[in-house]
Specification:
- The structure is a single chain.
- By secondary structure, the chain is α/β, with parallel strands linked by helices.
- It contains 13 helices and twelve strands.
- The two termini are 30 Å apart.
- It binds pyridoxal-5'-phosphate (PLP).
Length: 366
């Protein structure tokens, strides 16, 4: 029997046709498709505009630059997240400040954020982890510019508003296995036209009179054409994600595992389905060679990663953290396959494998 992969994109003839049409048109670098993709995404999120870039980490980097974050400034973020955030902050020579997460939502804990704010805090990066928006009301109330990281949360909502419409800026990723994909790709969205035009200026070096530094981190027309097709499919992608999450919840609730929960004022899109169980480590090990690709939902918490690099300036700033909820989530959580392309037979395969592993661990409550 084939292994069930942890993630894979949903692509059909519609994406192939859209990309082929662009290739035939001869206009392959940033143009009308990119502009249409920016308008469509901003429209869906409910903000004034979007600027397409080459990746999520580029979107983060340019957002920090647009906000004027500089050497020595502090940027608060969780440690239970991928290293993209750390790279973006280090590129602008700012100091990453890690806050712990909330046990229920895996998102940054605003009570811990409050303890970590200083006069040097210039921005906060708030990822909506695994498809669930963070406590935006409390976080925005600190008055520090918030970059909403929606790499895993396009289409989720908080108090009736789309994720990505609540901070100063929001960033998206269209990496191959993200909520929608263009291979690689990203976007910054915002209501602030001034910030958007700074990002637009930064993403392209060509034909500039000034001597400021610019990148080339544009999206291609092929990617944007694919993104437009994917964006149209977003409602069905999310519906399928919720359907699979429902199947998992029904089948797993009698076991001694903690399943993802969603506070009443939010709409989860189940980008990931992280479950907490004493068997997490065993499942992850089994997932490397077995029939089901169980994975850690985060490669390594950032404070554990920087702790490996003692004697470096990075460690000088980020050593000595105590983030108990982050450490516990890392030890106890495993992500099981959940994505729109997962067939019902594969969902069954995951459940069979998982429930028999949980029964062997004597976790069953009858
Ligand atoms: C929360 C979060 N932010 C940012 C990124 C970076 O996106 P990209 O891989 O497109 O650079 C990722 C990707 O893994 C992510 O999960």
């Amino acid at each position: 029997m084939k292994t069930v992969s942890h993630s894979r994109p949903s692509i059909d003839e519609n994406e192939i046709a859209a990309v082929s049409a662009v290739l035939r048109s001869g206009q392959i670098a940033q143009g009308v498709q990119v502009a249409a993709f920016e308008r469509a995404l901003a429209g869906l999120v409910g903000v004034r505009g979007g600027v397409a870039v080459s990746s999520g980490v580029a979107a983060l980097h340019l957002s920090l630059l647009a906000l004027g974050v500089q050497e020595g400034d502090e940027v608060v973020m969780p440690a239970f997240v991928c290293t993209a955030l750390l790279h973006a902050v280090r590129f602008v020579r700012a100091v990453p400040v890690f806050a712990d997460i909330s046990r229920e939502t895996f998102t940054i804990d605003y009570r811990d954020v409050k303890r970590r704010l200083t006069k040097k805090t210039r921005a906060m990066i708030v990822p909506h982890m695994f498809g669930l928006p963070a406590d935006m009301r409390e976080l925005v109330a600190f008055g520090v510019p918030v970059i909403e990281d929606c790499a895993q949360a396009l289409g989720s909502a908080y108090e009736g508003k789309q994720a990505g419409s609540l901070g100063a800026l929001s960033v998206f990723s269209f990496y191959a296995t993200k909520v929608i994909c263009t291979g690689e790709g990203g976007m910054v969205a915002s209501n602030d036209r001034e910030l958007l035009s700074r990002i637009e200026d930064l993403r392209d070096y060509d034909e500039k009179e000034d001597t400021g530094l610019h990148f080339n981190c544009k999206l291609t027309e092929m990617q944007a054409a694919m993104g437009l097709v994917q964006l149209k499919k977003l409602p069905e992608f999310i519906a399928r994600r919720r359907e699979i999450a429902g199947k998992y919840e029904d089948a797993l609730q009698k076991y001694q595992v903690i399943l993802p929960s969603c506070p009443e004022n939010r709409e989860h899109i189940y980008f990931r389905y992280p479950i907490r169980t004493k068997s997490a480590r065993k499942l992850i090990e089994a997932g490397l060679t077995g029939r089901i690709a169980y994975r850690r939902p985060v490669f390594k918490p950032l404070h554990q990663y920087t702790a490996l690099h003692q004697h470096t300036a990075l460690h000088q700033h980020t050593g000595g953290y105590s983030l108990p909820e982050t450490d516990a989530a890392f030890e106890e959580t495993v992500s099981i396959p959940l994505y729109p392309a997962l067939a019902n037979g594969e969902v069954e395969q995951v459940l069979q494998d998982l429930t028999s592993a949980l029964e062997v661990q004597r976790g069953i409550i009858l």
